[in-house]
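Practice problem: predict the structure.
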Amino acid sequence: MRDFADFVMARNQRLKQFKPAFEPLVKEIARHQSSDGSFQENALDDTPDDAYRYGVWFLQETGYFQPKDRFWTDQAFPDAQAVHTRIEAKLKATGLKSPGLREAYESLQAGKEE
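Answer:
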């Protein structure tokens, strides 16, 4: 049993090493999410929809909305629910007429905090 505990402890310590890389990225993506719920396009986005898809995907994958998915930090993001709500409202307001916007919306719904 001790070997398993050591394994888990070592794994958690390795994952925490990601914090210096992920923390500024999460903050930057959240910053690119405007107060109206939209995402600012950047040079990596081929279409406006990409800004939403990539932004939502990154925030989901890094656990910004779901504390249980934050493999890299124990930090709380108190604005996460408000950010989620703004993105959700903005996506709904678009009418979800394109596949990229629908994909972003569906991804956002799948990761709603429980």
